[in-house]
């Protein structure tokens, strides 16, 4: 997620690229005047189905001083592929991290381009991550469990010079929530109820 | 993703909880004998649709000495909700991180329970993350862009004492690829092609 815009640009513009730019600027100004509005809590739940297969869905989230319900629960199955002893009924859990990063930077590009008056033609990206299973399988204490590195490539086209288009991607990365979490980490508390 | 099992348990067991346990142990033994088989690269792509809306899908992945195609591309739309100037056509990109973490630990629980001979009745989890939009909006340099903290609760039931069920969750967390990435971070390289 990223709704970053150029800090020098606060004047309303017309909606562009499908972004309601006046609403975007109104949001920024509302938060500037009342910082507690900026506090959000996002929620999801998950239910085990069988084997490595399970399903997640979004839950009510809090923010802007209220509670909000998504238009749908967006139920999404995760599984392991056959080669990792699953039945391949959905993306691998680690692939959700890949989805999250490219989606976050791309959403931000949409907003930032609108705020800067750039009409986008296309934004496409590819992402890959290296993972050595010896960590997960408990076969080596020197190998980490997670990705060792992620590589992302963005192809962006629009009605601005290449350098300005490049800056849209860079600004979105600089204010991306997912990029921050993936590169810097986040504390995680886990509670277990067993019965 | 987690396929961790108790290191003391390597004898074949019958399939359990929908996990093909003999295949799981065969995989572990194959990797132990030939570590390069453990090297995987997972891939996804994303295409901007409009505004904050875009769609990700999985791509061919490499591992176990070969290339593998998922049974489907699992196209998944991401968007911002209305309150964050999107049209709410899919989960927020940051919500994919929530999906990834609970899915990864839950997939691992399925495997580890099977390896330890525990029949699961249910595994349900809830996750939430706090995010202060002032970071993303560029309104404060002291506020990070990403989640400040994640909280997860697991409810697990099965045919084992609560302490043994609790250990399944703990072992899955200890070998979870997503947990590792989210808590420790990962280097990310970004290439931009603008035209």
Q: What labels describe this entry?
A:
homodimer; 195 residues; alpha+beta; three-stranded antiparallel β-sheet; two-stranded antiparallel ribbon; 5 helices; 8 strands; globular
In short:
Two copies of one chain form a homodimer. Chain A is of the alpha+beta class and 195 residues long.
How many strand segments of chain A?
8
Please write the string of helix (H) and strand (E) elements of chain A.
HEEEEEHEHEHHE
Strand content of chain A: 25-35%
Strand order of the largest sheet of chain A: 1-2-5
**What would the average pLDDT of chain A be, to the nearest integer?**
92
Oligomeric form of this entry?
A: homodimer
Alpha-carbon distance between the two ends of chain A: 37 Å
Q: Can you describe what's shown?
A:
The structure is a homodimer of 195-residue chains. Chain A is α+β, with helices and mostly antiparallel strands. Chain A has helices at 21-33, 93-115, 133-136, 162-174, 177-184, and strands at residues 39-50, 53-58, 61-63, 66-68, 76-78, 120-132, 149-158, 188-194. In chain A, strands 1-2-5 form a three-stranded antiparallel β-sheet, with no helix packed on it. A two-stranded antiparallel ribbon of chain A has the order 3-4. In chain A, strand 1 and strand 2 form a beta hairpin. The first copy, chain A, is globular. In chain A, 52% of the residues are buried. Residues 4-10 of chain A have low confidence and may be disordered. Chains A and B meet through helix 1, strand 1, strand 2, helix 2 and strand 6 of A and helix 1, strand 1, strand 2, helix 2 and strand 6 of B. Strand 7 (149-158) of chain A pairs parallel with strand 8 (188-194) of chain B.
């Amino acid at each position: 997620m990223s709704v970053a815009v150029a800090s020098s640009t606060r004047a309303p513009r017309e909606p562009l690229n499908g972004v309601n730019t006046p609403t975007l600027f109104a949001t920024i100004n509302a938060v500037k005047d009342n910082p507690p509005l900026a506090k959000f809590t996002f929620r999801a739940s998950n239910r085990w189905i069988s084997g490595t297969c399970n399903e997640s869905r979004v839950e009510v989230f809090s923010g802007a001083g209220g509670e909000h319900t998504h238009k749908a629960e967006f139920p999404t199955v995760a599984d392991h592929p056959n080669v990792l002893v699953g039945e391949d009924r959905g993306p691998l859990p680690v692939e959700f991290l890949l989805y999250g990063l490219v989606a976050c930077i791309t959403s931000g590009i949409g907003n930032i381009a609108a705020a800067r008056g750039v009409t986008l033609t296309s934004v496409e990206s590819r992402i890959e991550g290296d993972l050595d299973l010896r960590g997960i399988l408990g076969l080596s204490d020197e190998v980490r469990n997670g990705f060792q590195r992620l590589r992302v490539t963005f192809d962006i086209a629009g009605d601005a010079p290449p350098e300005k288009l490049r800056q849209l991607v860079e600004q979105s990365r600089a204010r991306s929530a997912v990029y921050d979490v993936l590169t810097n980490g986040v504390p995680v508390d886990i509670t277990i109820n067993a019965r």
